[in-house]
Specification:
With about 140 residues, this protein is of the alpha/beta class. The protein contains 4 helices and 4 strands. Strands 3-2-1-4 form a 4-stranded parallel beta sheet, with helices on both faces.
Length: about 140
């Protein structure tokens, strides 16, 4: 399957050249990462005191989203169906003290309610929700 767009569109901005369709080759390619954007925009440590929930963090973009947001100093709660898999994907990210995991299966509303209840026990504040989880 070709990643070249059949419909041309104009990319603009600092990262336009690195994000062109012709350069997309999957994980590890030249695309800009969220962590790079945080650093480039001078946001490292600037969200201390903020609380963020990111859904679907067991792999891929979810892990990288948590990594980037955690670097801002925010407290990040990631939700996942498979906590052992997520812990493995996170590695030392959980050692930072500002990253926490909540079990949540979006296809099961009782699981969603339980995750919300657990979050409310741990935090009185929520500033941002990143809805990353996919439904099967």
């Amino acid at each position: 399957m070709s990643m070249i767009s059949r419909e041309p569109f104009q990319l603009s901005g600092r990262y336009a050249d690195r994000n062109r369709w012709e350069r997309l080759n999957g994980p590890g390619d030249a695309r800009v990462t969220g962590l790079e954007v945080v650093k480039d925009e001078g946001l490292t440590g600037k969200w201390a005191g903020k609380v963020v929930i990111v859904t679907g963090v067991s792999s891929g973009m979810g892990v990288e989203t948590v990594r980037a947001i955690a670097s801002t100093g925010a407290t990040v709660y990631g939700t996942a169906r498979d906590i052992p898999k997520t812990k493995q994907a996170f590695g030392s990210l959980l050692d930072s003290g500002n990253v926490h995991l909540l079990h949540m299966d979006q296809s099961d509303l009782s699981s969603v309610r339980s995750a919300a209840d657990e979050f409310r026990k741990q935090s009185k504040t929520l500033n941002v929700i990143v809805a990353n989880a996919a439904m099967q």
